[in-house]
Request: fold
Amino acid sequence: KHVMDKHKSIFPDDKELNKILKTVDKVERSLKTISDKFFEDGEASEREVTGVARVGDLAKSLLLKGDKNVHLVVMCSKKPTEKLLENLTQSLKKQLEETVEVKTENCDDANNQQSTEKKCEVTSEVKISGFFVKTESCDIKVTLTSTLLRRNDGEEEGGEDPAKPETEDENNTE
Reply:
């Protein structure tokens, strides 16, 4: 009984947890939609963005009461570039704005009070090869990565920083 009481005191209540999970789900769905658009618009035979994964405390259901920082990882088929990061950031801003506008247009005046969410703030951060999505309910850190960034056994440790996205000039030289 003591353990269950302690668990209740540190685990977020359902309302708080649901807000975080809904926000994360909205970002994940938006990234999926963006990936589909990129694939349809592009000439490449494979997707640039192949998946999104929840990592850290959120993935393991270890969020504590008051935790508002969660982490997602976007898997890319190629090494992430600054151009891809910028395209994803801009597309996500537009996608999240559209979903908020659609919600408020489809609601009656009585329900409109509940549905008015603060808009999501999306900021790009090249140093971490990702971006942040800040909302009222949580702050989501989204990092771009690829399996191509793994170090090979024969590779020296003094090589380039794998977390830093490549610039377009570096892509053209390879």
